[in-house]
C-alpha cells in the first residue's frame, strides 16, 4: 500500500508540499489537475512542470485526480469525439511523466455535494462537511452552487470550478433526455475511446463514486453501489478500467457494505486506488456528517476496510479524505492538514498491526 495525499498545486492549497512530506509514511501525492476546463488537453510541458515540482519536494506523483470529463461526453453529443481525443492526449502526456492512475468521475454536472461545508460537531467543537437531504429539498441547484462557492474560504472546491457551473441551468435542462441506460451507453462510448490508449501507455483509469451515493436533483447517477460498478467494469473489460473506491462516498449510502465491496472489486483487480474516510449518519439515512477517520467516530469499520485492502489489493494507493477542520485551521473545506494527517497516522497504524498479525500467522 502506498499512502498518498491530495494536493491542489502551488498557490491553490493552504497545505505545503513540505508539510505533506513530513507526515510519517507519506509516499507521494494524488495530485490534482483541475485548473483547466474539462475537455482541455494537459500538455506534456504542463504535466512535466507539475510532476517535477512534486519530485523536488521528495514526493512521488503516480496518481492524478480530477482529469474532468467534458459534459458533452456524458451527454453523448456529437462534439464528444474531439473531447475524447483530447482526453487521450492528456493520458499520454501524464503517462510520459510517470503517472500510473488517473481518477475521474462520470457524475452529471455536479461532482460531490454537501448542504453545509462547516457544520459544527457539537461533541468537540470542530466542524466538517455535512449533508441533509431535507435541507437540499428546499434549495435549488443554483442556491447550492452559490452557497458552496461562498463558504469555501476563497478556494475552489473540486468539481465546483466556476467555468463548469456557469452554464448550470442549461446543462441541467439537457440532462432531461438522458436516463440511466443512456448514461451507461455514453459511459461505454467514453471507455471504448480511452481504454485502448491506457493499455498502450500503462495507465489505469479509476472512476470515483457518486457522492452522495444516490441520484440528486433528478439527474441520472449510475456509480454508487456494487451493481453500478459491476456494470461499469463490464462496459469495457480491461485491467485499466477500474474504480477509485471512496469509502465515504459509497458509505454515505447505508445499503453499501464497504469491506465487502472492496473485497469484491479487489479480487477482480479492479481497484485503481482508494480514498479512505469515515461518515456518521445522524438519525436518518440521508443525513450525515464526515467524522474523523476513527472507526468509533463514524459508521464505517476502518479496521475491516484496511483488512480488505490488505487481503485483496495490498499494492494499491490510498489517501485519507475530507478531514474535519480542527485546531482552528483555515483551509479548503475537507482539505486541511491536521485532521487528514491524523487520518494518515491512524490508517498507517492499522496497516502495521494487520501486517504484523498476518506475518505472525504465517510464522
Ligand atoms: C472530493 C473528491 C472528488 C474526486 C473526483 C474525481 O473531494 O474525492 O472530487 O476527486 O470526483 O473526479
Helix/strand layout:
Elements: E1 2-7, H1 17-21, E2 28-32, H2 44-56, E3 60-65, H3 71-75, H4 80-96, E4 101-105, E5 116-120, E6 127-132, H5 133-137, H6 141-150, H7 162-165, H8 168-174, H9 180-201, E7 204-208, H10 226-235, E8 241-246, H11 247-251, H12 258-267, E9 271-276, E10 279-284, E11 287-290, H13 302-312, E12 317-320, H14 338-362
Parallel strand pairs: 1-2, 1-12, 2-3, 3-4, 4-7, 7-8, 8-9, 9-12
Antiparallel strand pairs: 5-6, 6-11, 10-11
Bound molecules: D-mannose.
D-mannose is lined by residues 65-66, 103-105, 111-112, 158-159, 208, 246, 275, 334.
Provide an overview of this structure.
The chain has helices spanning 17-21, 44-56, 71-75, 80-96, 133-137, 141-150, 162-165, 168-174, 180-201, 226-235, 247-251, 258-267, 302-312, 338-362; strands at 2-7, 28-32, 60-65, 101-105, 116-120, 127-132, 204-208, 241-246, 271-276, 279-284, 287-290, 317-320. With 363 residues, it is of the alpha/beta class. The strands form two sheets. It has an eight-stranded parallel β-barrel, surrounded by five helices. Strands 5-6-11-10 form a four-stranded antiparallel beta sheet. The protein starts with a strand and ends with a helix. The model has no long low-confidence stretch (mean pLDDT 94). The structure holds D-mannose. The site of D-mannose has 13 residues, from strand 4.
